[in-house]
Please model this.
Amino acid sequence: MHTREEKLEAFGRLLDVLDTLRERCPWDRKQTNESLRPNTIEETYELCDALMKDDPRGICEELGDVVMHTIFYARIGEEQQRFDMADVCNRECDKLIFRHPHVYGDAVANDAAEVLKSWEQLKLKEKLGKGTLSGVPDALPSLVKAYRIQDKARNVGFDWEDRRDVWKKVKEEIAEFEAEVEQMDEERATNEFGDVLFSLINAARLYHINPDNALERTNQKFIRRFNYVERRAQEQGRHLRDMTLAEMDALWDEAKRQS
Model:
């Protein structure tokens, strides 16, 4: 691992490289906040993918891309005389110090739950006049947004007293969804299905499960098993389209035994 001085030197080197590219590279020179945004989203998802796979090399590489984008936006801000990288770092330091009074002040927090509750309360103080849910970005993916909405509501006391009670709500929402499906009312069924998902995400939160991570694990598991089924079919000289569901299920069971 590198020393603090070496880390600072490396960060300075990245700043210098970005400055050079912004001045001399035609592509880098023409970028704006708006044009960079799609790339930033893509890089963030690539980092999330590496994190889920626990791929150290991939995480390191994708973190570099995300940091590069951060510096790039700061450089654009500097050119527009709005802010620079020092402002970004200083504002973040000030915010972290303010939101950690149990570290930098006299407050006491005995566990992570108390830290989170204090964090949300301090955020509200920073944003006087704004509602509890105002800090949830509109652009968040719906599943992540639902989790954050529920988590913020929890921090002001709007939550189940006994987490086991959430299962009554889940069953209630499933029953309402089933009723609308039977009536063949697509609009109402869609609304009720949203309620089912929202209640399940709430259950995951109450049991300290990140629903986005859980779903992605299942996505990856399905991909592995389906690829196995497809590969085994090809080894038999067959195509999935020509197989019965029972035959594919047999290969699926093989795949499950492999993982």
Notes: Residues 213-258 form one domain. The two ends are 35 Å apart (CA to CA). Residues 190 and 253 are 32 Å apart (CA to CA).
